[in-house]
């Protein structure tokens, strides 16, 4: 367990050991869960759809790509 301090504008700084262990980078989003008197943070991991966003020319491109990939597994 590590300690941090709540700063102005309700900000905290995560210790470097936690940042490295969770493989966090500037701009990463974190989910905050509250249970009784405890708060936990966990990183939001990108979905495969989010990772592929913008890689295809039209909206159906991702779905078509995934369909074709799945079909190729059957061969």
Which characteristics define this entry?
single chain; about 80 residues; alpha+beta; 2 domains; two-stranded antiparallel ribbon; 2 strands; about 35% helix; about 15% strand
Please outline the major beta sheet: 2 strands, antiparallel
Number of helices: 3
Q: What is the total tally of β strands?
A: 2
SSE series: HEEHH
Overall structural domain count? 2
The N- and C-terminal alpha carbons lie at a distance of: 50 Å
List low-confidence stretches.
none
Structural class: alpha+beta
Order of adjacent strands in the largest pleated sheet: 1-2
Q: Which band does the percent of strand residues land in? A: 15-25%
Name the quaternary structure.
single chain
| Average predicted confidence as pLDDT | 83
Radius of gyration, in Å, reads: 19 Å
- Give the overall shape: elongated
Helix content: 25-40%
How does this model look, in words?
Helix content is 33%, strand content 16%. By secondary structure, it is α+β, with helices and mostly antiparallel strands. It folds into 2 domains: 8-43, no CATH class; 45-75, no CATH class. The longest helix has 14 residues, at 61-74.
Summarize the structure.
The protein has helices at 16-21, 48-52, 61-74; strands spanning 30-35, 38-43. It is of the alpha+beta class. β1 and β2 form a beta hairpin.
Give the helices and strands, then pairings.
Layout: H1 16-21, E1 30-35, E2 38-43, H2 48-52, H3 61-74
Antiparallel strand pairs: 1-2
